[in-house]
Design brief:
Blueprint lengths: L18 E2 L2 H10 L3 E7 L2 E7 L1 E4 L2 E7 L3 H5 L6 E13 L7 E11 L2 E2 L3 H15 L12 H5 L1 E7 L3 E6 L17 E4 L38
Antiparallel strand pairs: 1-10, 2-3, 2-6, 4-5, 5-9, 6-7, 6-11, 7-10, 8-9
Length: 225
């Protein structure tokens, strides 16, 4: 893993060897995830809102209703924390405290910006559709001016982001190896199901929307981490 954090507040402090700060690792997790969580504060009360997100280069985008409380609370320079991640496996040890999960996660800190230009907003929302199903945006009815007016698109720079990743197997305490209970790793994966067409759907199912195999799994290291 890359050893240098972009800032002290994004440095992984608990088990720092699991920290990763290279953009290849961060981008891969964000691009694969379908949901991110935006943490924000209004009148001293913290909130966390799940959003559909997408990445374009060095920016992480999400959208919401233009009148949403989250958009109103974060549109004047207030900082946010955005997270996304996966569980790749459940790790069952021989003691409860050593049970674990193999996971990949990202945290991004910064100040969000709203997309004001309607053309830029439409293009960004097309990028969201193509994130979910590559090439689909060009096939759809264009968004109307009213639809764009009611939709807010926000983005945050990825210059202050970090990832944390656990791979590997069981990490028992010395002497626990002979405890008479099953221990091991149970893989967890996300799989797209078979498409269920709308009754008036026409044409074949586009490539990329069909049932898929499990997403690529990170390589398991020989030594638990």
């Amino acid at each position: 893993m890359t050893a240098t954090a972009p800032s002290p507040r994004t440095a992984v402090r608990r088990l720092p060897e699991r920290g990763a700060y290279d953009r290849a690792t961060i981008d891969a997790i964000l691009d694969e995830a379908l949901v991110a969580y935006v943490g924000w504060v209004a009148d001293g009360q913290p909130y966390v809102t799940p959003v559909t997100h997408w990445r374009e280069g060095d920016r992480l985008y999400w959208h919401a209703s233009a009148g949403s409380r989250m958009i109103r609370a974060t549109s004047h320079g207030e900082p946010v924390c955005v997270t996304a991640g996966f569980v790749d496996a459940l790790v069952f040890a021989r003691s409860g405290t050593n049970h674990a999960m193999n996971f990949r996660s990202v945290m991004v800190l910064g100040v969000p910006h709203l997309v004001a230009d309607e053309g830029e907003k439409a293009a960004s929302l097309d990028a969201l559709i193509d994130h979910l199903a590559p090439g689909r945006a060009a096939l759809l009815r264009p968004a109307t001016a009213e639809e764009l007016r009611k939709t807010a698109v926000a983005w945050i720079d990825l210059d202050e982001a970090s990832a944390k990743v656990r791979t590997g197997g069981v990490n028992d305490e010395p002497g626990d190896e002979d405890w008479p209970v099953w221990a091991g790793v149970v893989p967890v994966s996300v799989v797209r199901g078979r498409p269920e067409p709308d009754q008036r759907s026409t044409g074949p199912v586009p490539a990329g929307l069909g049932a898929s195999t499990a997403r690529p799994r990170p390589r398991r290291s020989a030594t638990p981490r």
